[in-house]
Amino acid sequence: MYIEVMKSKIHKVSVTDANLQYVGSITIDEALMDAANLIENEKVQVVNVNNGERLETYVIKGERDSGVICLNGPAARKCCPGDVVIIISYAMMDFEEAKSFKPSVIFPETATNKLI
To answer: Which of 11, 14, 35, 85 is deepest in the core (most CB within 10 A)?
Structure first.
């Protein structure tokens, strides 16, 4: 049996931009992506702490150490610059493997989106 478990989480970062005219996705600082074990085009869930909105999209690599967290396309209507979000990815794995799996979870400085 396979189950879906949390693979990666960026806990509480601030949205720096919302670009309605972009095709879609979320742009994330490459340093945060590496620390959280996320890759470009990976599906993520974005949970907005300010308004309770939840959405699914995919990751676009942002400039390293820029602190960028930008919601693009229709997702831009779900978050405003300054909102705090949690970004989560999931993976399918065997039930027994999942029991010992350790996800990558990071807690950046929310005000700057920089790793502490």
So the answer is: 85
What is the number of structural domains in the chain? 1
Percentages helix, strand, coil for the chain, rounded to the nearest 5?
A: 15, 50, 35
Query: Would residue 23 count as lying in a domain?
Result: yes
| Tens of each residue's pLDDT in the chain, 116 residues | 999 999 999 999 999 999 999 987 999 999 999 999 999 999 999 999 999 999 999 999 999 999 999 999 999 999 999 999 999 999 999 999 999 999 999 999 999 999 98
58 labelled catalytic: yes
- The answer to whether residue 115 is domain-embedded is no
Among the options 2, 14, 22, 25, which is catalytic? 25
Domain carrying residue 34? 2-106
Single out the catalytic residue among 58, 66, 90, 104.
Answer: 58
